[in-house]
Amino acid sequence: MKKKIIILIIIVIVVVAAVFLPKYLSNNNDVVLFNIKSNQVIKSPLTIEGKARGTWFFEASFPIALVDEFNNHLAVGIAQAQGDPATGEVNWMTEDFVNFEAKIEFLAEEDIKGFLIFRKDNPSGLPENDKEFTVPVNIAKSEEATMKVYAYFNNSEMDPEASCNKVFPVERRVPQTQAIARAAIEELLKGPAETEKSQGFFTSINSGVKIQKLTIENGVAKIDFDQQLEFQMGGSCRVSAIRSQITQTLKQFSTVQSVIISIDGRTEDILQP
User: 3, 27, 153, 204: which has the highest count of C-beta atoms within 10 A?
Assistant: First the structure.
């Protein structure tokens, strides 16, 4: 009798495993890291090497985020598909694994716990196409010198009437650099941290926006973004807020008196409500 019960239990375990294990593996078997392990100590700058299913890529890349244990964003990076060692050809349009490499720079004022989040690129924007792979890491305190910059966001508490073009600064620390204006905009594009959100800060800028070029000459800052800046754009209030966030973030520097925003080099027909 006991033997029959044991056999029955084994059968049940096998059946359950057959039903659920493949699904579990499919959800955790799309990204393989070569040089990062769970709970590994990481330092900036960080190079990540691995492979991912071709379905994770769009235009040969997909995004990576580094967050602390409270989900505050510390850095973003791009996993770039690598070419075949023999031919140099980059083929990401496949369901097979494709090698990738990413470089991330971040600032940590103390040793903290965090997560590397690998996100399937999803140009459709449909929730059912979203997918993530998360790896816990230990983030080591940065040893490099830092600088203070401000990123400007909307704030529902400071501006309850939602006047659109009113934006307010939050302080950020960035690695010391001569490209300080670009560093400030990169902080802006990260969006508000969770603690800042709890204080009413929010952004009107789409996630995933990339800076393509930034120059400052004779008091004029010219900044060019990719098309993600105006993806699914709508409403004059949001357009005004986006322009204010970018303009005020750049005008915190004495070398900037005016700002020209462009998308893929276009200035005339962008950020239309």
Answer: 153
